[in-house]
Amino acid sequence: MHDQTIAIALLLGSFIGMLLLQVPITFTLAIASVITAIYLDIPLMAIVQNMVQGVRSFSLLAIPFFIIAGEMMGQGGISRRLILFSNLLVGRVRGGLAQVNCLASMFFGGISGSAVADVSSIGTILIPMMKEKGYDDDFSVGITVTSACQGVIIPPSHNMIIYSLAAGGVSVGRMFLGGFIPGIMLGVGLMIVSYVFAIKRGYPKERKYSWKEALVISKDAILGLMTAVIIMGGVISGIFTATESAAVAVVYAFLITFFVYREIPLKALKGILYSALKTLAMVMALIAAASAFGWLMAYLRIPALATQALLSITHNKIALLLLINLLLLLLGMIMDMAPLILITTPILYPVVVGALGLSPVHFGIMLILNLAIGLTTPPVGSALFVGCAIGKIRIEKVIKTMLPMWLVMVTVLMLITFVPEITMFVPDLVMPQL
């Protein structure tokens, strides 16, 4: 007879220990699972079977398609066109380029679904441009990094698909719709902060465009934005599943990138596919390892024990939600988003959805926004590191400037947490549950 407490300590202790030793997260999850299985005399083939089962999902096919479409549009000139389109819409506001940064991230998020991709594509153009126009380094990097978080909330987002899988089949279409208002709120909040910074530091407006220029810019940008429209329209209308709409979006992105924009040659497709394959390999390996880890957590009843532990602290709904948000914010500071979605969803879902009665879609958006904030915070914030590398600035210098931006993000998080209608209005209106 094996002691459950020792098994839980082995699973979580070895996981935390390897994280501290900076072992890659995929190996950390897999090794912790193997060590615990050996202690429990569970055949290692059961671990392998659960890893295979974790990636044998039709819904997961949407992820490689999203990645490929995002790579094509990112390298094919869509970033520059979205920046011009954003400049046309908001460039005349004080601190025009900062406003453009926020709006372009909102648009690009609807194509790439990735905060890091957003920082990489838009940041490489806008950060040097902002510095040239007299914007401070710390502000240029800070607003780029924080606005990029819209990429994981505004649909389509492959992180929503990962959450849907981890939560046991939550509607991907409703998750996509649930991200609209929170993503726009975050963007508007950051635009207000940018305006305040611009007034305080004397940042300039951008030039006015002629009607002819405006028409050309709009036509070019709308062709790229149609990628997101295809994905969302297909899913919401029921014509396509999320996977099928992502596949159609790849075909559309291919035609627009190579035969309409034509900024890169057809031979660049090899590099795009190679880059997408590297990203996909990391994501799928992570999902496989997390599936085995999650199965062992369920076997050891860790979600049930976590529910009991949290409810033993307090039964007050507000206090519990604040506690869960604090926990997720702290975890987001030390781990990346995808593994945290896979690990925390099975643990917290029974508490938030089961005990507190939140909608699975509401909890999903709350969870993803929490972890998106983690992408912008040290010590492991991947979007922050990419932004600082592009801006050639030390993280310590950026952090102070980012404090008002984090305040906006946390304020939006609290509103989403305690006003469920913000998240649920669009899903309930467009795709009501029968």
Structure description:
This protein is mostly helical and 434 residues long. It has one domain. 79% of the residues lie in helices and 0% in strands. The protein is globular and about 75 Å long. The chain starts with a helix and ends with a helix.
Structural category is: mainly alpha
Total separate domains: 1
Counting DSSP E segments of at least 2 residues, the number of strands comes to 0
What separation lies between the terminal Cα atoms? Answer: 47 Å
How much is the average pLDDT? Answer: 86
- Summarize the main sheet: none
**Low-confidence parts, pLDDT < 50 over ≥5 residues?**
none
Bulk shape: globular
What fraction of residues sit in β-strands? under 5%
Q: Report the order of strands and helices.
A: HHHHHHHHHHHHHHHHHHHHH
Features:
434 residues, mainly alpha, 79% helix
Can you describe this structure in just a few lines?
With 434 residues, the chain is mostly helical.
What is the secondary structure topology, with strand pairs?
Blueprint: H1 4-20, H2 25-39, H3 44-55, H4 62-75, H5 78-90, H6 96-112, H7 115-132, H8 137-147, H9 158-166, H10 172-178, H11 180-201, H12 211-237, H13 242-261, H14 268-299, H15 302-313, H16 317-334, H17 337-355, H18 360-374, H19 382-391, H20 395-418, H21 421-430
Helix pairs in contact: 1-2, 2-14, 3-14, 4-13, 4-14, 5-6, 5-12, 6-7, 6-8, 6-11, 6-12, 7-8, 7-19, 8-11, 8-19, 8-20, 9-17, 10-21, 11-20, 12-13, 14-17, 15-17, 16-17, 16-18, 17-18, 18-20
